[in-house]
Amino acid sequence: MRVPDDVFAQICAELEAAERSGELDEIFKGEPRAPDQQTGRKPFLHSFSIGMKLYKSTFLKIYGYDITTPEFAEDALTRLAILGCSRARDYYRAVVLEWEHEHNKEMKSAAHWYKERCAEEWENMKRKAVRESRKEQEAEQLKADLQQKSDRELLILLQRLKRSGA
User: Fold this and answer.
1) What single string gives the DSSP state of each residue in 5-67?
2) Calpha distance 130→123 (Å, rounded)
3) What b/e string do you get for 119-153 counting C-beta neighbours within 10 Å, with b at 16 or more?
């Protein structure tokens, strides 16, 4: 989905104002995260509990971890099943299929855009080659014409060029 130009301009203006005010100066100078705080696969897996609400984002996170850690999804879905969510696999498959469908659409769109850029560049290169070829042909023709002129004709041409300042 494309952000409307006026909304994008407003966001940019707000960021610029925040930057000018110094509001962003300390953004990365906070305290480092404590090792016991929940981050990563294991704490995520251990955060599952009986009766917890499962969101699409939960299954997307499982999928993301599974991409980098094979069998993570199997472990997570097994744990959810043990905790009583018998439809977790179905939800997971649906979320993954939806994500992959959207991802493939985006990739096709990007490939189409890239193909168009490549075609444009190829056409520009062909036009440039044709122009260069024409210039070479014109130079060869001029050279051939000059070689056919007599010394007197060449002298007259040189005097004209000298007068014209070329």
Assistant:
1) HHHHHHHHHHHHHHHHHTTTTTTT-SPPPPTTSS-SHHHHHHT--TT----HHHHHHHHHHHH
2) 10
3) eeeeeeeeeeeeeeeeeeeeeeeeeeeeeeeeeee
* Confidence bin at 94 (pLDDT 50/70/90): very high
The reported pTM is 0.55
So what's the pLDDT on residue 1?
Answer: 66
* 137 vs 130: CA distance, rounded Å: 10
Q: How far is CA 23 from CA 16, 30, 48, 90, in A?
A: 10, 13, 37, 45
